[in-house]
């Protein structure tokens, strides 16, 4: 009894420090449980109709444009967007908004240049579209390597974030809790992918997108209602409460410092706008619809949803700056902004200690949890598909593997990728891995986009060009980050916290920028050009008119 | 049917290849390509320049971006919101354009293909 008491007392201290109560914790945990049950149920339901390879990889190409638009939204609006952007706005004001704009405008590249053509030309993976007129084994190996690396980076960022977030939101702390959370998220995503394939994953993403839109809309309306729906009042209060005054509403608080940080910002901006259309887990979503026209409709829905969502994150971010007070405000800063949305929900629900506050906090926490699950499932499926379809069936088995074996291999690959992600995320859980999302965009823009665009629009483009641009973009973007201040040489902050990944006495940095895109993206395009013009491929050039007809008209496209 | 992977490129039957080449030579296909290029090249250039202008202004035109337009709404916020407006607008314009100028041609060519080899 005494022991029980003391544990309880300790708990109270801990919980009070986190501005939450044990009722709240039960409520949050039940909603998390509900999200898990709902998604597991959906996965079982979807698995009944997953039989062929097209079912497993592409959901039978049976989704409508609108459904796929929601799924794209569910795949794209990650925890980094939901919690990260609103958090960045809450902490840095206007500079947080800059991300949203890059993330949204990027969809025009996907809409105008990539979505329909890829749907017509490919089958299951990013590499399919290249394989039509290139030597299959080298291009599939390169494209699969890049797909897996981009997806693992993105996956790690989400899983480490999940560990920190779920333990914070559930009010449980410590290393073990984080490890268990990471392992649980990892096992769930493997389950969705192995059992439900693309159908299960897509429905999980659709449900998540609906939950996310509903949750953000609810909080946004409640925030605006506090200011009589006067945006100017909201901005004014946010600026005042931030302690920064009008500077809070202007660009510059985060990126405005030195020339280096300004160039870093341009570099990030370019990677964001060009990266989306090269992200493998986004590209494979275009295969889940029956026609190119449906792929176009899905991007239009995605633009509408994602744009509306980012407009609402503006309200959430400034709302958190304006309405969250006292120790909760400090918590937002301590969490690097990640807790801005959940704590804002608590504040507009009535504040800490109120039932309304507890309910809204639990609701938004559950939405964040659903967000993480849907995104990691999409990433795992994409990399598992590439392992099975590109590496196993084409490179290794040279096309002799049966469809059944290929799907079996995809399921095995999902287990392995899930295992690798858990094994990397657990030791990495205390590192600041947020940069991995920006790096994934930079790799996608440097390695994947040049090859995709050259292949569709340049007759002369050939295998060597494709391989050089993919490996060149990949190696340069990852390599530059290794020698950037992210990995070493940034020194300590005023509190003595190491700002780089390596211990502070090791300094291998010589590249001044944290975002490699401004160098690696032009390099990816340049190497694709150089590789192409230094060799000639008769087959690639002869096949180009065929690829053009196929990608422009959908004649002979996979059904 | 499984396509056997060869080390050159994906295998396609000679009839399908011949039909692709035939369609490629038609004036309709040329019209489809030029309709696509006529819209996509200028609009891609325009939105990239417009976006980069925004990025550069955020970096180097602090005074201009900080000017208040009405209430607490400043140029920076309006400029950012305009990026949303132009993105929505261009997406809508492309949807309309492709529906009226491109889809009829591509539907017809695809139907021809399916009659010949489908």
How would you concisely characterize the structure shown here?
The complex is a heterodimer of chains A (559) and B (118). Chain A has 559 residues and is mostly helical.
Characterize the structure shown.
Helices cover 75% and strands 0% of the residues of chain A. Chain A contains 21 helices and no strands. In chain A, α18 (435-457) runs parallel beside α20. Chain A is globular, with a radius of gyration of 23 Å. Chain B has four helices and two strands, in the order αααββα. The longest helix of chain B has 42 residues, at 75-116. Chain B has helices at 14-25, 27-60, 62-66, 75-116, and strands spanning 68-70, 73-74. In chain B, β1 (68-70) and β2 form a beta hairpin.
**Spans of chain A with pLDDT under 50 lasting ≥5 residues?**
1-19
Strand content of chain A: under 5%
Tell me roughly what share of residues is in helical segments of chain B.
Answer: over 70%
Estimate nothing, just give the exact number of structural domains of chain B.
1
Question: Helix/strand-derived class of chain B?
Answer: mainly alpha
Major sheet: arrangement of strands of chain B? 1-2
Number of strands of chain B: 2
Question: Could you say which overall geometry of chain A the principal axes of the C-alpha atoms support?
Answer: globular
Overall geometry of chain B: elongated
What average pLDDT do the residues of chain B reach?
A: 91
